[in-house]
Amino acid sequence: MDELLRMSVFLHLVFVALTFAVAALHVSLLWFIKEAQRLGKKIHTLIPVYYFLLSCLFFTGLIAWAALHFYFSHAVVTMVVVWVLMLGGSMKAYSLFKRTKTTNAHEAQQRFVAFAKKKYLFDIFVLGLLVAIA
Predict the structure, then answer these.
(1) Helices 74-102 and 36-67 meet at what angle, rounded to 10?
(2) Which end of the chain has the smaller Cβ count within 10 Å, N or C?
(3) 3: CB partners within 8 A, 6+ apart
(4) Mean pLDDT over all residues of the chain?
């Protein structure tokens, strides 16, 4: 059981680092690419990767939690709440992103970019904070 716990925690931390890197890549793209069509193509390729990493975080966290016999602690509740906020923010960002693809309105693109910057900066901050605490 200890082997399972060590392996799942290691994989969980690897996926946290990858999620952190993809969120940082999102922020850098949003910050430096000003052309809407080029930005849309780059973001569109990264969205499935981000969702995949969130699902990997959920799965490895669930395995680690099962190895701990589903013991509720402050850390477990915090990680679940953070994961739900990250997933909800990603869903909201994707809905705003879809609106930018259907309309060429500059204000819709600006709304998406502003929300996505805040969302991915929040994800970077929270993931960094959780790793620092753990």
Answers:
(1) 160
(2) N
(3) none
(4) 90
Backbone angles phi, psi at 103, to 5 degrees: -120, 150
- The confidence band for 22, taking pLDDT boundaries of 50, 70 and 90, is very high
Dig out the tokens for 106 from the structure.
């500059």
Q: Is 66 helix (H, G, I), strand (E, B) or coil?
A: helix
The secondary element (H helix, E strand) that includes residue 48 is helix 36-67
Amino acid type, 71:
Y
CA pair distance 67, 6, nearest whole angstrom: 10
SS3 call for 25: helix
Query: Confidence band (pLDDT; 50, 70, 90) for 57?
Result: very high
**Res 11: pLDDT:** 95
CA distance 6 to 132: 18
CA–CA distance, 9 with 73 (Å, rounded to integer): 16
**Which residue in this structure is represented by tokens 């060429």?**
104
* 8 in Cβ contact with 43 (< 8 Å): no
pTM above threshold 0.85: yes
